[in-house]
Each structure stands twice: as C-alpha cells, then as structure tokens.
C-alpha cells in the first residue's frame, strides 16, 4: 500500500508572484535577527523551516494543472535569494525540495505527480539523499535499489544530505538493477532509514547536510521516479538546480553587503589619511562600496535573465533551449560566486578590526559563501560558457553546470 506523508502543519496557498515575494520577505525579516546566533550556536532552524513550509512557499513551482500556482523560475530565484539574505542556511534547505519537484515534473507518471504534488501543496517538505562521501568521484553513486523476495529495497550511505533532518520525504538517488539511476521519494519514517546530524562544515552550519544511512529500506514502487533519463534527453532539470545555488550566493552577498553598510555607518572609524570625520565619508570606502553595490545589482539582473531562459526551456524543451538556459545559469552562478566571496571579504576591509569580534559573528557571511560556492566549481563553468559562445558547443547536460 502506498504511503501518504502528512505535513507538520497544513500549508497556506500562494497564488501569485506578488504573494510569494511578500511571503519570502516576511519570513526573511523573521529569520534575520537570530541568524548570527543560530550560526554561532549551531542551533538547527526546526521551527523556522516549519514556518517556511507552512507558508506555502514549498508549493510555488507545483504546476497549475495539479493545483499549484506554477510560478516562474525568475520568481523562484528571487524567493531563494530573499530567504538566503535572511539566513543562508535556511535559504539553501529548500533547494533540493524544488529540484526533486522538477524531476517529478519531467519524469514522474501522472499518478505520481498527482499524489506527490498534493503532499507538497499540503505542506510536506522534501529533503535529499543524493551525494555520497566515499565514492571515487563526486558523481559516482553506489546506493542500490534492488528487488528482494518481491519487495524493492534501498541500501547505501549518503552524505551532504541537505534538509534531510527536517523533511517528511527524502528523495534518494540510487542505481537500479538495470544500472540506471532512479530517484526514490522515500518517506522519513521508512524502516531502515536513519539520519545523522554530523555536518561539521565551517559554513552553512545549520543546513543539516549530514549523513543518511539506508539499510534494506522497503520501497513502494509508486515512489520510484526515473532520474537518469532527465539528463539523457534535453530537460531543464540541471539549470533549475543551479539557478537556486546562484540565488543562494546572491542572498549571501546581499547579507554581507547590508551588514557592511550598517557597521561602517555606526561603528567604523575613519582612517587618519582620509581627512574626514566619519568612516562613511572616506572617499576610498565610497569607491569600494560603489563597486560592490554595482556587482550585486548585476547579480539580480543575471538571475532574472537565467530564470526567464529556464522558463523558455520548460515550455519548449529541446537541445538549444536547454543549452541556452544552462549557459545563462552558469553565467549567473559564476558571477554570484565571485561577488559573494568578495562581499564577505570587503566587509572586513571597510568595517575594520572591530568587525572581527566574535560578538558580531560577521565572518559567517564569508564562511557561508566559501562553503556553499564549493558545491560546483566555477572554474568549470567559464570554459563551458566560452566554448558555447565562441564555438557553438553545447554544454553537458547535468545538474552541476
């Protein structure tokens, strides 16, 4: 019998882009005042994430034909960036949720879509168990999905399982008996499934990106969705995954920028050679702030272009539309990676030594940026962009570009 997962709290319904953005801003304002404390104490945002998924934001990409608002990817990127500015760890947690929903959209059967989308509309949070820690290469997976006495079983060890600690279902990547990868939408209470809070990264400290252990977990066949085929043909699954990572970095950059402005205005002292009374009047400080502000604003524009390209690829998926979306997203991701790191560093250059005091915990912005930007190396994005614009070579179809 197929298991239906119930939400922690029944979610509100969001019906428009304006409502989604207003909700994201409201939640970010709620999360922001305690973000530094959560980071320093590594206090998991259980209540905050419950509020997020009860708000209805988890369902904004559910297609209209299944009762959702089917909002654009431009809006999705804005929502992720807004949440990440409020708290970068909280902003990252829904990324895999929306990623799983896109795999469901392109590869799920109508019955699977109807059932799982209804859970999401009700407020169920999907986590993830995709990556593995001990494999020879990052993209290799040894987790197996096999039949045993007529019952599908899932066995393996996962890590970097962002959001799994908080989720009602944990979409898990596994290799089937035919060698093809599947995505198993595994209920959290499945026997043999255990989640360990052993993430010790110095940034993104409360994402819950630790271990998931699967010991002969029984699997309902209705919870198995083809995964590998989402990359064997042109689909927007890959660029959709990546635009959210770009949006997370954009949010981190804005958070560092905002704290920098506030600190320079209220606490920093001018350098002796500036000849001014306030640090906020220092001409070199004004120059640096002007430059980083322009770069951050450009990040918003690049995310908008990338989101619109994904929208096109979702409506008409072919090799060219998906390639264009991938390149636009790679451009945005490369840009926001560099700007997030730069903003986290510039904060200290302009705010001064006082900003390094632990009581402010301002280094969390740089730590968050440095940790999250390791997710997919920028050094592989620029050659793909260059090869496309110069030689017309289509980029690889995968979730890491």
UniProtKB/TrEMBL annotation:
Record keywords: Oxidoreductase
GO terms for biological process, alphabetical: fatty acid beta-oxidation using acyl-CoA dehydrogenase
Annotated Gene Ontology cellular component terms: cytoplasm
GO molecular function annotation: acyl-CoA dehydrogenase activity; flavin adenine dinucleotide binding; oxidoreductase activity, acting on paired donors, with incorporation or reduction of molecular oxygen, reduced flavin or flavoprotein as one donor, and incorporation of one atom of oxygen
Cross-referenced InterPro entries: Acyl-CoA_dehydrogenase, Acyl-CoA_DH_C, Acyl-CoA_Oxase/DH_mid-dom_sf, AcylCo_DH-like_C, AcylCoA_DH/ox_N, AcylCoA_DH/ox_N_sf, AcylCoA_DH/oxidase_NM_dom_sf, S04_starv_induced_SfnB
Domain Acyl-CoA dehydrogenase/oxidase N-terminal: 20-123
Organism listed in the record: Serratia plymuthica
Stated family: Belongs to the HpaH/HsaA monooxygenase family.
Superkingdom, taxonomy of origin: Bacteria
Segments forming domain Acyl-CoA dehydrogenase C-terminal: 243-376
NCBIfam families: sulfur_SfnB
Protein known as: SfnB family sulfur acquisition oxidoreductase
């Amino acid at each position: 019998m197929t298991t239906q997962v119930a939400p922690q709290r029944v979610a509100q319904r969001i019906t428009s882009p304006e409502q989604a953005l207003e909700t994201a801003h409201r939640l970010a304002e709620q999360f922001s005042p305690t973000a530094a404390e959560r980071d320093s104490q590594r206090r998991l945002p259980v209540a905050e994430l419950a509020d997020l998924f009860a708000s209805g934001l988890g369902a904004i990409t559910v297609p209209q034909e299944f009762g959702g608002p089917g909002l654009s990817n431009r809006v999705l990127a804005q929502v992720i960036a807004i949440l990440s500015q409020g708290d970068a760890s909280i902003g990252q947690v829904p990324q895999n949720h929306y990623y799983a929903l896109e795999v469901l959209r392109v590869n799920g059967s109508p019955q699977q879509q109807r059932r799982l989308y209804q859970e999401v509309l009700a407020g169920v949070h999907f986590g993830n168990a995709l990556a593995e820690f001990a494999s020879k290469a990052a993209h290799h997976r040894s987790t197996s999905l096999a039949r045993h006495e007529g019952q599908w079983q899932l066995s393996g060890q996962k890590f970097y399982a962002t959001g799994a600690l908080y989720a009602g279902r944990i979409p898990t990547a596994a290799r089937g008996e035919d060698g093809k990868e599947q995505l198993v939408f595994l209920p959290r209470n499945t026997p043999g499934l255990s989640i360990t809070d052993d993430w010790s990264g110095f940034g993104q400290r409360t994402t819950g990106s630790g271990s998931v252990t699967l010991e002969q977990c029984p699997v309902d066949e209705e919870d198995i969705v083809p995964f590998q085929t989402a990359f064997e043909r042109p689909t927007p699954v890959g660029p959709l995954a990546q635009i959210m990572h770009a949006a997370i970095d954009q949010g981190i950059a804005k958070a560092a920028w905002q704290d920098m402005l506030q600190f320079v205005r209220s606490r920093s002292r001018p350098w002796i050679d500036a000849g001014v009374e306030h640090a906020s009047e220092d001409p070199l400080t004004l120059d640096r702030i002007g430059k980083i502000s322009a770069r951050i604003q450009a990040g918003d524009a690049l995310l908008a272009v990338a989101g619109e390209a994904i929208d096109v690829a979702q409506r008409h998926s072919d090799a060219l539309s998906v390639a264009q979306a991938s390149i636009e997203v790679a451009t945005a991701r490369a840009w926001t990676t560099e700007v997030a790191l730069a903003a986290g560093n510039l904060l200290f250059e302009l705010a001064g030594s006082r900003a390094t005091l632990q009581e402010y915990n301002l280094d969390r912005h740089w730590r968050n940026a440095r940790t999250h930007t390791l997710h997919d190396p920028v050094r592989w994005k620029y050659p793909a962009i260059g090869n496309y614009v110069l030689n017309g070579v289509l980029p690889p179809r995968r979730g890491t570009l």
